[in-house]
Amino acid sequence: MGCKTCEKPKVSHRKGLWSPDEDQKLRDYILKHGHGCWSTVPAKAGLQRNGKSCRLRWINYLRPGLKRGFFSAEEEATVIKLHAILGNKWSQIAMHLPGRTDNEVKNYWNSYLKKKVVKLGGSNSHASPTKSQDSVNQSPETRQIPEEENKQIPGSDSLEPLEPPMQSSMDHDSFKGTLLPPFPKVLFADWLSMDHPTNQSLLNSDAEMNCQWDSNSNADLFKYGSFQADGPSSSDFLHGFGDSSFCGEFQLQFEHGDQLLGGAFCNYLSMDENGGSCGTNHDAIY
DNA sequence: AAAATGACCAACCGCGCTCCG
DNA sequence: ACGGAGCGCGGTTGGTCATTT
């Protein structure tokens, strides 16, 4: 996808963890202009990163609507089920988990679910032909689940959830006996409603279920509660948000909660992008 | 209390695909 | 039709924090 305006800045790209300042710059830029051509984003946003890194950071961490909490029993079951069907098709699995990224699903699988499935006898692992899955069964890195963990897995011979997180009012950490993260997680819809009190009626009590505790920077999104009001036009704001997965996530998210907001929300997001919104051609911006 | 080990997760890397000129 | 550029995806790595010895 060539981009006419793409230039090739000869800058040495920074690597490693993102600083809050970098996050701020990237978020500011994308909320204001959309990402457009990723390769130009770093230069325009004043970042010494490559476009790929910016894209990843946005998708996996900064994008509004990310849940970033512990997986609910439902989500966990979905991951296990879909992984059995799809294998390591993380992006496809993530499509069914509104607010989750492929990277998050992948990490969750590798750090937690994989062990669980193995412990359960690998009955769900047969469908995955991947090297990763093989390593679960064969590699020396395969770890035995500690007895302590085993004790914490009631009903571990079924696919019943390991008593997880949200629905049980227990997140993964507390499940593991550690501390709760300190801050409430705010979904984009919740955040939107804060900025638009008139939308509040659109959120029913199910929204509470989505208000997990999370320590990450989604809380920062509060800062942007005003960007729509005194910031750029909706047109500017929506550049780059016409992403199918983005809309799809919200759509799914609220459909799951028997809410009608999903469509309305996507309409809202795509109000000036008819034809291109919620579609895949988010590059045709500049 | 300090060192060793384990677990988690953010980020990087490389490959394949698609689009455009 | 072909080559280059950009994007998306999956695998892997490396840093950090927690737990154990």
UniProtKB/TrEMBL annotation:
GO terms for molecular function: DNA binding. This is Transcription factor LAF1-like. Residues 10-62, 63-113 form the Myb-like domain. Keywords: Activator, DNA-binding, Nucleus, Repeat, Transcription, Transcription regulation. One of its GO terms (biological process) is positive regulation of DNA-templated transcription. The keyword Lyase does not apply. Gene3D superfamilies: Homeodomain-like. SMART domains: SANT (SM00717). Residues 10-62, 63-117 form the HTH myb-type domain. Pfam families: Myb_DNA-binding. Residues 122-142 have a biased composition (Polar residues). The gene is LOC109504900. One of its GO terms (cellular component) is nucleus. It comes from Elaeis guineensis var. tenera. Residues 120-175 are annotated as: Disordered. Its main location: nucleus. It is found in: Nucleus.
